[in-house]
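queue> holo job accepted (adenosine-5'-diphosphate)
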Amino acid sequence: HPVIELAGVTKAYPGGVTALRSVDLVVGHGELLAIVGPSGSGKSTMLNLIGTLDRPSQGTVRIDGHDVAALSDRQLSALRARHIGFVFQQFHLAPGSDALGNVADGLLYTGAGKRERKRRAEAALVRAGLGDRLTHRPHQLSGGERQRVAVARAVAGDPLLLLADEPTGNLDSASGAGVMGLLHELHKAGTTVLVITHDRDIADSLPRQVSMRDGRVV
Ligand code: ADP
Ligand code: ADP
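queue> job finished
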């Protein structure tokens, strides 16, 4: 089955805003794509539904063939932990923990022992080009390096899907290019990567774009 399948998905928030209107989307294994559109067009709502952080008002969301509506909150957290990596605009790293600790803690859900978590965290950081930053804390790293730590944390457990919400939004263009380069490498290594952006240039640099406007795919 596809990694992501949205069929007739509508999302109405309490208060009357309809953020998504009858959206269909199929994303296959190994795709790298952008969801692009202006502020308020429904990108974050779509990311929350694909990330199983929220449920649709109507329609079906399937992740790796699992119908989200058929799963309990507990089953959804398990699916999310095993299959989906998240990267946000605001890095969300633990300030008191070094790069290795930040990435290793992201593997707690696997039940792997401390040594094994550190081994896998180090491998992910090395692949992200941060082999010489393992014991640096977030405040000792540049913005681009922080975001690469966040990407390493998101992929250390080998997720099926990496969801990146405006991953370059807080970065200068050189650091942003470094982060996008890392996402391209992950794609080449087989990970399915979905990037949310309002930046046309970033969307144009990816193999597939889905454009949103007023809650619809256009
Ligand atoms: P984008 O990510 O493209 O900026 P959003 O999905 O955040 O778009 O928002 C789409 C619409 O839904 C906007 O009108 C926004 O104000 C509204 N919206 C988003 N989140 C909520 C919420 N939790 N409650 C009510 N309205 C929301
Ligand atoms: P292959 O074995 O097909 O050459 P690799 O596993 O070496 O693929 O990965 C190729 C690229 O993908 C690496 O250069 C790295 O940047 C990126 N990559 C793969 N896995 C990870 C990971 N877990 N964390 C960070 N980057 C990764």
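queue> Strands lie at 4-12, 18-27, 32-36, 58-63, 66-67, 84-87, 161-165, 192-197, 208-213, 216-217.
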